[in-house]
Amino acid sequence: MCSGCDGSVGMTIRRKTNTGKAPYTPCFVAGCRIATDRGAVAVEDLRVGDRVLTRDHGYRPIRWIGAREFTEETLTDFPELRPVTIAAGALDGLLPSADLTVSPQHRMLIRAPEGGGEVLVPAISLTARDGIAVAGQGGVIYYHLMFDAHEVICSEGAWSESFLPDADALAGVHSAQLREILTIFPELARPAGLVSYGGPARHCADMAGLSAAA
């Protein structure tokens, strides 16, 4: 199943939610190129079943794709939803190989300070670095890619996460998209569903937490 894969967009939000809170939306922006077994493919051109390169398990098929549109009006109301652009080379001098734009909560794979291991950190927590900044005005379409397990996948040469169906992420998808996910992964409807799914592919943190722990 796929929401937004036929050229339509799964959801457009133009007003504040009843809670007044911005939805949690970790995902790629349209135009990001994802490494697949047939080369780099724009995220909006991917389809369920396409095989994507993962850091840990070789090529794995996409099980679900979701799309969500945020208008400029919504982003004015919720500026914390504006995407983050990582300029080419901003992560380590080499990567990404081209500018990469993701949602602010989308987690990028980096190496922890002081010789630590690999961790996943939200893009927004990297904006103190040169070449990484919140994008300017304009609406945006975000795309979720979900696999049989949480994966670390490659976009523009940089590694970042696939969709992790934890409580925050599931609360941020449209009800029709949630039904699709639960049809494919019915175990997620149970209290311990994320345990069955497998949990995060790496330790998840933010830069403030990493700095405090260093």
Automatic annotation (TrEMBL):
It comes from the Bacteria. Pfam families: Hint_2 (PF13403). Residues 26-166 form the Hedgehog/Intein (Hint) domain. GO terms for biological process: intein-mediated protein splicing. This is Hint domain-containing protein.
